[in-house]
Amino acid sequence: MKKVKDIIVFEGMQGCGKTTIANKETLKKQLLSNDYYKDYHNVINLRCPGDGIAEVRNLIRTSESELDNYTYMCLSLADMNELVKKSIQPLLNEGNIIILDRCFHSTFVYQDFTIYNRTSAEIISEHVMNIFGHDLLDRMITFILDVPYEIYKTRRNYLNDMSDTFEKKFEKDEGYGEKFFNEKRKKYLNFALCPYRTAKMILQDVFILNGTIDINYNIANVMMYLNIINDVRRS
Prior knowledge:
Strand order of the largest sheet: 2-3-1-6-7
Order of helices and strands: EHHEHHEHEEHEHHEH
Shape: globular
């Protein structure tokens, strides 16, 4: 009998609604009232990057001088390691459900390079396995909120926030921005539809949610998938 899924990850492009659903009190209440989580005490929200090494979030998101891709990757992985060791593992041991606003999935999406004849995907997969280990990866379930470029543009303009280093690439010009956005969006969708060969060993139970629909419908979808997966694991 395997442990229930108690590390819940929300991923996706900026403006997809992942932070909104991750912080929704309705979701937390439904989790704690669910029979599969009756022995859990609380739901804890963590950001990745940021809650492992606070300074890393600003370095990645708003660095004045653009850093090398390998540097971005190493910063993300270092933050992830600290997050697991100092927060995720202790909080799970204390009987908490963890909700992550992003995780290693975005590192795959935004880092695409080759160094010393090794792809970034190979390097990330290896490090993620070392950081999380089989046990934590087995307890993780991922929901990718998907939105088209037009929705992204509308939401970003409404929020008037283009401080993110990577988001600025979407805005260089209309043609380039949309192309770059769709390339990254496709990578997110591939986690569920056709995982990268090198990432298959660390990816389990990844589901796509429609980020354009009412948030309450997606909370219901999250609970439905959790019930299905947890039922299979407990049977």
